[in-house]
Amino acid sequence: MSENKPTTGSTWIDPDDAPEITADFFEQADEYIGDKLIRRGRPRKPNPKTQVTLRLNPEVVDFFKSTGAGWQTRMNDILEVFVSGARAEHSKLSVKVDVKRRPSKEVRDLIAMTERMQELLSVRNDKHEDKKRA
Description:
The protein is mainly alpha-helical. It has helices at residues 23-28, 58-66, 71-88, 105-133, and strands at residues 31-33, 36-38. It has 4 helices and 2 strands; from the N terminus they run H-E-E-H-H-H. Helix 3 (71-88) crosses helix 4. Residues 95-99 have low confidence and may be disordered.
């Protein structure tokens, strides 16, 4: 006597069982113009920021973190101010510091530039605080 074999599932799918194509389906579809895929979402910036790994003194990190949310942006702003000032005074930045001597004119100029940066940032922070209050 022969035993009954279990039936295997069919691979055929009835086209009438296919899901309905809705507007939601088309919103998630890829759009092409010719062979070029059109990306959705926020457009890419022409000059995006570069991610780096960097070791900083704990005091520097603690100071910026203590200023609250957005501390990394503030750090970037300070560096941008420094770079723009450094470009203006480029020849003065090639400085070698000898701690046994009085600081050179270049080092004193760099210190003065840093103080100017602090003044600029305090004005910027005041404006930022005024915006928060409004």
